[in-house]
């Protein structure tokens, strides 16, 4: 009863605050509604009246076109391309409702994932069943809640396709899983992160129908018909999405929008990955070099990488990183995971573990990674967390770290109590529910992991409370973002390595507590 009262108060406060909260993504998607509704298809990927040009794959543009037909009944003025930064109450209401409506797919996908989880035999308490815990971890996910329903995006809709695709593979309905992922990839190309896991898994475990006695692939069991079926699915979806633009000779223009490499190594707010650590190390070395008179300050590049801008920059001391370098690093980071499901397949759950490593490898080493991309790993990891004790510990570290790394997305004073209360509720539930699920088997976290997570409290206090009151606020405005990125990078990279250890560990070897 007390929990219900608390939830109602938080929800009421959250609902009132949403009326005053707007992010740039409102204008991004409003502009895309206007472009797809008001302009011919041939101009969609050329229109640049707004700085927020259309840079998602064509299938998402078709999705925006469909939404625009409903949007005109709320406020037709939002569909005018020249109405930049238009945010009437009816426009905001429509955008909020469209996210809620499309989240129905995510709810259905969560239900299908819960059906794939085996509940403990003899479990009498529904609230402690793995399927129930998974449902809460997915539907009440803090990161997805603030990114979609406060900051504003359609990630729930997209993750619905991802989780439903994973569920279909867990249910051995591989063609349906392939179709769903093909649709997802044509809605948002960031899911290329996990495409290698899908491609190798389907080729190894679907197109090859048998294994040898030693577990190696039986080359004679290759099924050309199955490969053709998969190829037909992928080709059909891509044809529907890209076909009109290929026919108009606009494929190069579309691709230039999808892969804007001139945006720079890091996003305006550094995602917590290896490049945040690399940038920081470069800054430290440059500062030390100047103070020790080993470097001339006038000869160093301007420190644009700590200015919060989306642009290319040169490192001062360390070698500058190019897109090709990040691509090589990413491929090398996921190669062992992909090779593992080829040479030592472990079924659909082995595929899921490989998917997580591909997502994290791309996040850790990728070019111009968005901080929100950490959710591509967090949400699917929820499935493994309710089935395996070691994965539950990794989940707690990655989720707490990854979710806190999203705090800078909500930066106004009005948003502070919202993000703190919502994250506390989710984090407390995650720790409590998973501990009950694995009660009697020791702590889910190692001592150093607990110390690291407690350190987030200090970082949060310094960035959210102390720094705004300090004289450094005007001189070093990017410092809280830097501290958040660097500290969270350690947790993300650590989780990546622990997941790798669990994948590459020989079968039958006992797991460490």
From TrEMBL:
Protein origin, superkingdom: Eukaryota
Gene Ontology biological process terms from the UniProt entry: protein N-linked glycosylation
MF term (GO), any: dolichyl pyrophosphate Glc1Man9GlcNAc2 alpha-1,3-glucosyltransferase activity
Keywords, alphabetical: Endoplasmic reticulum, Glycosyltransferase, Membrane, Transferase, Transmembrane, Transmembrane helix
Location, primary (coarse class): endoplasmic reticulum
Subcellular location: Endoplasmic reticulum membrane
GO cellular component terms given for this protein: endoplasmic reticulum membrane
Annotated metabolic or biological route of this protein: Protein modification; protein glycosylation
InterPro entries xref list: Glyco_trans_ALG6/ALG8
EC number: 2.4.1.-
Enzyme class: transferase
Transmembrane segments: 131-152, 190-207, 227-247, 325-343, 350-367, 450-469, 481-501
Membrane topology: Multi-pass membrane protein
Membership in a protein family: Belongs to the ALG6/ALG8 glucosyltransferase family.
Protein name listed in UniProt: Alpha-1,3-glucosyltransferase
Organism of this sequence: Sander lucioperca
């Amino acid at each position: 009863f007390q929990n219900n009262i608390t939830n109602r108060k938080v929800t009421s406060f959250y609902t009132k605050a949403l009326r005053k909260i707007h992010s740039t993504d409102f204008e991004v998607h409003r502009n895309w509604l206007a472009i797809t509704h008001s302009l011919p298809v041939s101009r969609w990927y050329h229109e640049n009246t707004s700085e927020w040009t259309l840079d998602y794959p064509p299938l998402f543009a078709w999705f925006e076109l469909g939404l625009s037909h409903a949007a005109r009944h709320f406020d037709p003025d939002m569909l005018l391309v020249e109405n930049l930064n238009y945010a009437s109450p009816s426009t905001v209401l429509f955008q909020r409702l469209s996210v809620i409506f499309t989240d129905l797919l995510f709810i259905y996908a969560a239900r299908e994932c819960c059906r794939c989880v085996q509940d403990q035999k003899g479990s009498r308490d529904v609230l402690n069943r793995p399927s129930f815990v998974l449902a809460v971890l997915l539907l009440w996910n803090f990161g997805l809640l603030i990114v979609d329903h406060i900051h504003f995006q359609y990630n729930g809709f997209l993750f619905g396709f991802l989780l439903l695709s994973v569920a279909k593979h867990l249910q051995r309905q591989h063609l349906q899983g392939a179709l769903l992922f093909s649709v997802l990839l044509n809605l948002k190309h960031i899911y290329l992160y996990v495409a290698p896991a899908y491609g190798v898994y389907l080729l190894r475990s679907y197109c090859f129908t048998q294994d040898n006695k030693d577990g190696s692939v039986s080359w004679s069991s290759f099924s050309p018909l199955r490969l053709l079926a998969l190829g037909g699915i992928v080709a059909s979806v891509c044809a529907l999405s890209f076909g009109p633009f290929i026919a108009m000779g606009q494929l190069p223009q579309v691709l230039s929008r999808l892969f804007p490499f001139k945006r720079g190594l890091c996003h305006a707010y550094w995602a917590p990955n290896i490049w945040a650590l690399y940038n920081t190390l470069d800054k430290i070395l440059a500062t030390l070099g100047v103070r020790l008179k080993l470097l001339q300050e006038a000869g160093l590049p301007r420190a644009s990488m700590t200015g919060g801008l989306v642009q290319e920059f040169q490192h001062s001391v360390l070698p500058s990183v190019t897109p090709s370098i990040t691509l090589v690093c990413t491929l090398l980071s996921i190669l062992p995971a992909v090779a593992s499901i080829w040479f030592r397949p472990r079924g659909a759950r082995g595929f899921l573990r490989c998917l997580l490593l591909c997502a994290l490898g791309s996040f850790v080493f990728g070019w111009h990674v968005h901080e929100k991309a950490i959710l591509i790993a967090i949400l699917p990891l929820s499935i493994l967390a309710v089935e395996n004790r070691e994965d539950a510990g990794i989940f707690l570290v990655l989720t707490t770290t990854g979710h806190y790394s999203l705090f800078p997305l909500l930066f106004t004073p009005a948003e502070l109590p919202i993000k703190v209360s919502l994250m506390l509720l989710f984090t407390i539930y995650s720790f409590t529910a998973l501990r009950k699920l694995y009660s009697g088997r020791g702590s889910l976290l190692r001592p150093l992991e607990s110390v690291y997570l407690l350190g987030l409290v200090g970082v949060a206090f310094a960035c959210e409370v102390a720094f705004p009151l300090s004289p450094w606020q005007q001189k070093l405005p990017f410092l809280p973002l830097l501290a958040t990125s660097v500290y969270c990078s350690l947790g993300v990279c650590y989780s990546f390595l622990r997941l790798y250890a669990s994948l590459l560990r020989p079968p039958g070897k006992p797991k460490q507590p």
